[in-house]
């Protein structure tokens, strides 16, 4: 087992990474305020992981309320959140009851937001069960639900007390969701960790066949990067924005195609290639760099072109993005492979060209 720490003074918390950590109740118990938890999960994850997970805890005398939500990004909304509140109240959950997110990023984001709001804030744990949530969304305390016109538009910064990332849980994950998570792993390499990019170029196939060591390494180094960034810029006043690389374009794809049709990682992959294309147009990346990034996304089975929404629709959706400040679109671009910057250097015409260059019709 590997342990990382997100360093945020009195709100610091550990990330435990390793095979079997999900069943190690001793990691859990010291962080409980009262012997009562509410596990939030969904209809897909529940039959696979819920009963084993709660059995161990009930065995330790913990009272457990189970909240099983419908599956999918299209349910990351007010209605589902309200259902969580209804069931927390019905289960007599209190302010010191710990909410546990058992699932992917959708469950993690919604549970975190529910924890931020319920009785003005209850403790919560992240038990991520997709590669994407293990390498990204479970760490850092961004919680949210979607609005029909924009991803994650309603939410809060609210840190978990604990993250348990167990690569064993990824065994049941679909091929498509595994690949989706790889998009965020590639992102860390592109924005700030060239050695990780090189490691991925050598070990991508191991990762895709779910070799346990490769998975653990990918989760560990992703969380290490994320923990470093979050520890130094929790509220995204500076370097944390770099994590949004590919996301302004990607969120436009997700919203434009209807939530759930493109997975988050697929949208991020195509969005990253748009940002890379733009970085190339500005003269920061050369053709070889573009090809190198494209080869990695392609080998991971991820799209390197976005859907033909029309450039105006892209721009309209991108204007709703939280990265817009005083009406100016600030994009995360690469000054070289392994080093990202936030920039408003690209003109609208260049942004349009980059989108058009990375859109595939049909
Ligand atoms: N908070 C953040 O910092 C942050 C960062 C990145 C992404 N996100 C958010 O995360 C979400 C995407 O997360 P995701 O890719 O995990 O999607 P997801 O939560 O929808 O999970 C993908 C699919 O895998 C299923 N699943 C989960 N665990 C499984 C398992 N162990 N076995 C089999 N199936 C399993 C889910 O039910 C779902 O159908 C998006 O809403 C995105 O906005 C948040
Ligand atoms: Zn993401």
Written description of the protein model:
This protein has 362 residues and is an alpha/beta fold. Helices cover 46% and strands 20% of the residues. The protein is built from 13 helices and 15 strands. It has helices at residues 25-28, 45-59, 78-90, 105-117, 131-137, 175-192, 194-208, 212-232, 247-257, 264-281, 287-299, 311-319, 348-357; strands at residues 2-6, 13-17, 36-42, 63-69, 98-103, 124-128, 142-147, 150-157, 162-165, 306-307, 324-325, 328-329, 331-336, 339-343, 359-360. The strands form five sheets. It has a seven-stranded mixed β-sheet, with helices on both faces. Helix 6 crosses helix 8, helix 9 crosses helix 10 (264-281) and helix 10 runs antiparallel to helix 11. The longest helix is centred in the middle third of the chain and has 21 residues, at 212-232. The chain is globular. 48% of the residues are buried. The model has no long low-confidence stretch (mean pLDDT 95). It binds nicotinamide-adenine-dinucleotide (NAD) and zinc ion. Nicotinamide-adenine-dinucleotide is lined by residues 42, 44-45, 48, 71, 73, 76, 103-107, 109, 129-130, 132-133, 136-137, 140, 142, 151-152, 169, 172-173, 177, 180, 264. Nicotinamide-adenine-dinucleotide binds next to helix 2, helix 4, helix 5, strand 8 and helix 6.
């Amino acid at each position: 087992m590997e342990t990382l720490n997100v360093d945020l003074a009195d709100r610091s918390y550990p990330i435990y990474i390793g095979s079997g950590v999900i069943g190690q109740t001793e990691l859990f118990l010291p962080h409980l305020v009262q012997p009562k938890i509410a596990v939030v999960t969904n209809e897909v994850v529940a039959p696979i992981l819920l009963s084993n997970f709660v059995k161990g805890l009930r065995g330790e005398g913990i009272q457990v309320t189970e909240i099983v939500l419908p599956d999918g990004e299209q349910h990351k909304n007010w209605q589902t959140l309200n259902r969580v509140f209804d069931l927390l109240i019905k289960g007599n959950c209190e302010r010191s009851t710990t909410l546990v997110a058992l699932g992917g990023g959708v469950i993690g984001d919604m549970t975190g937001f529910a924890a931020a709001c319920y009785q003005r804030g209850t403790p919560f744990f992240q038990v991520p069960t997709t590669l994407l949530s293990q390498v990204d969304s479970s760490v850092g305390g961004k919680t949210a639900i979607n609005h029909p016109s924009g991803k994650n538009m309603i939410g809060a910064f609210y840190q978990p007390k604990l993250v348990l990332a167990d690569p064993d849980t990824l065994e049941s994950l679909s091929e498509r969701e595994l690949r989706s998570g790889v998009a965020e792993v590639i992102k860390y390499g592109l924005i700030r960790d060239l050695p990780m990019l090189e490691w991925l170029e050598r070990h991508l196939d191991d990762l895709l066949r779910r070799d346990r060591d490769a998975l653990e390494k990918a989760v560990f180094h992703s969380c290490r990067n994320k923990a470093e960034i979050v520890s130094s810029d929790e509220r995204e006043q500076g370097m944390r924005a770099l994590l949004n690389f590919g996301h302004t374009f990607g969120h436009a794809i997700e919203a434009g195609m209807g939530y759930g049709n493109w997975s988050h990682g697929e949208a991020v992959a195509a969005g990253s290639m748009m940002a890379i294309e733009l970085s190339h147009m500005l003269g920061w990346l050369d053709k070889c760099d573009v090809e190198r990034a494209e080869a990695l996304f392609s080998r991971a089975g991820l799209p390197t072109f976005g859907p033909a929404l029309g450039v105006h629709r892209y721009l309209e959706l991108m204007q709703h993005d939280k990265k817009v400040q005083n009406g100016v679109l600030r994009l995360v671009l690469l000054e070289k492979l392994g080093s990202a910057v936030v920039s408003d250097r690209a003109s609208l015409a260049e942004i349009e060209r980059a989108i058009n260059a990375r859109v595939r019709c049909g």
